[in-house]
Write a structure and sequence with these properties.
There is one protein chain. The protein is an alpha+beta fold and 231 residues long. It is 30% helix and 28% strand. Strands 1, 2, 3, 4, 5, 6, 7, 8, 9 and 10 form a 10-stranded mixed beta sheet that branches. Helix 1 packs across helix 5 and helix 3 packs across helix 4. It is globular, with a radius of gyration of 18 Å.
């Protein structure tokens, strides 16, 4: 049973992704492990305890600096049912961009305000507007930004940034991240050994935010920026 699920997991990576190299495979495997852990609602420490490794090892797996052996992959896959893997294939490997909306605004996407491109601000729960999504635009919602910490990328005070909702990131992505479930930031995501850095892209001096080991659990990835709308 364990081997069958492990082979389903690995086969899904090989069959459903266009892989160009061994490094590409490692990167995708790292992203999948992060996705699985988040889907199971586990911290790195909790997943580590379940499969008998250290939390820093899980961090290395998720950063792609180490690759789990087949025995460890079997332990990870054993945490999933076959139904989980099929669901993951639909939700993660095929990555549908937009969920079905259940209200009268299903032809539009919401705009959220007060998202920081500066030192940080509280994520607004209320929707300030709805806007139509372009045929070629990949987004689940839009954020209207404050601050200037991303102005090198053309993101200024009041800019509208399209966000694709997902709970994982890869090196160099522009991410919408929540810190301690309060502070919402738009920053570049840079991986480092056993952690990551949220990096400003600004002509002004802004602080980089570094998270390592258990500190990474303070951060939740809310989505990835896909475009900036011109005002």
């Amino acid at each position: 049973m364990e081997k069958n699920k492990m082979f389903m997991l690995i086969h899904s990576i090989n069959r459903d992704w266009s892989l160009e190299s061994e490094e590409d495979f490692k990167d995708k495997l790292a992203t999948m492990i992060t996705f699985i852990r988040n889907e199971l609602d586990l911290t790195q420490a909790e997943l580590a305890k379940r499969i008998g490794v250290s939390p820093s090892t899980i961090g290395n797996y998720e950063q792609g600096t180490r690759t789990p052996d087949l025995q460890t992959l079997a332990k990870i896959s054993n945490l999933l049912t076959k139904e989980d893997i099929l669901t993951m294939k639909n939700e993660f490997l095929q990555m549908p961009a937009i969920e079905e909306k259940e209200d009268h605004n299903n032809d539009k996407i919401p705009v959220y305000g007060n998202v920081s491109c500066g030192g940080g601000s509280l994520m607004m729960d209320n929707v300030i507007d709805y806007e139509e999504k372009g045929e070629l635009e990949e987004a689940d919602f839009i954020i209207q930004t404050t601050g200037s910490s991303m102005n090198k990328l053309g993101i200024f005070e009041g800019s509208k940034v399209l966000i694709k909702k997902q709970n994982y990131a890869q090196n160099n992505d522009i991410v919408l991240a929540s810190i301690d479930n309060e502070e919402a930031l738009l920053k570049r995501y840079k991986t480092i050994d056993e952690g990551f850095v949220l990096v400003p892209e600004s002509t002004e001096p802004y602080e980089r935010k570094v998270f390592m080991n258990e500190e990474t659990e303070r951060v939740k990835i809310l989505g990835i920026a896909t475009a900036v709308r011109l005002r």
